[in-house]
Design goal:
This protein is mostly helical. It folds into two domains: about 10-75, Arc Repressor Mutant, subunit A, CATH 1.10.10.10; about 80-210, Up-down Bundle (Four Helix Bundle (Hemerythrin (Met), subunit A)), CATH 1.20.120.530. Helices cover about 70% and strands about 5% of the residues. It has nine helices and two strands. The protein has helices spanning about 10-25, 35-45, 45-60, 80-100, 105-120, 125-145, 145-160, 170-190, 190-210; strands at about 65, 70-75. Strands 1-2 form a two-stranded antiparallel sheet. Helix 4 (about 80-100) packs antiparallel against helix 7, helix 5 runs antiparallel to helix 6 and helix 8 (about 170-190) packs antiparallel against helix 9. The N and C termini lie far apart (about 40 Å). This is GntR family transcriptional regulator. InterPro entries: GntR_C, TF_FadR/GntR_C, Tscrpt_reg_HTH_GntR, WH-like_DNA-bd_sf, WH_DNA-bd_sf. Keywords: DNA-binding, Transcription, Transcription regulation.
Amino acid sequence: MSVITLAPAALYQQVAEQLRQQIFQHELEPGTWIDELKIAQEFGISRTPLREALKVLAAEGLVTMKVRRGAYVTEVSTKDVRDVYHLLALLESDAAAVVAVTASDAELATLRALHIELEAQVGDAQQFFAINERFHMRLLALANNRWSDQVVADLRKVMKLNRHKSLFKQGRIEESLSEHAAILQALLARDAERARQTMQLHFANGLTATIQ
């Protein structure tokens, strides 16, 4: 069994990131009990930074702490998924409307470049998902609302517990790419209302693909 070497600075944060990635990659499946002793041994650390890391992940909604039972990877219900998508649709469609009006041509060009990258990854679901997220986070950054940014970042972490499955469904990647193209066209046209509507449709279709 290999031991992961971690630097001492902000150790619990590094542990949290290691576990976060294991959860996102479904190496730790939803509902899985987190064996603190085993993980501490694998990481070559004491259980103190591990427990601090678990508190961080619990605050993000990725881990659920159960009394006298320990920590579990959060299981996301259909209602949870609907609620998360609802909030993301509201926040990101609002951001799209703002960016359509306020972004510079150079800033919009960065979104166009990301869309081109997205087109090149249609055959690779994992890479497509990663670039898809970069597009959305770049859009939020351009909207320049740090409060919204933080809320969306946390919601997207929860969404990753379930969302990745939708991209493996037949035809969803192509549909998502088409929706991104419509969002980009609205942004380039400086049409705030169309940008809002196309983003809302993107999330509505994503939700349907996820819960079916």
